[in-house]
Amino acid sequence: MATASPAGSPRLRTRLGSSEAVLVVPKQQPHALSEREPILNVPGVVTLLCGAMIAIHAIREFVLGEDRDREILLTFAFIPSRFERSLAGSWGFPGGAAADVWTFVTYAFLHADWTHLGVNVLWFLVFGSAVARRFGAARSLLFFAATAAAGALGHLAAVGTQFIPVIGASAAVSGFTAAALRFVFQMGGPLGAMRQTGEEAYRMPALGLAAMLRNGPVMGMVVVWIAVNVAFGAINLPMPGFEGQIAWQAHLAGFAAGLLLFRFFDPVPRD
Question: What is the pLDDT of residue 253?
Answer without folding.
Answer: 95
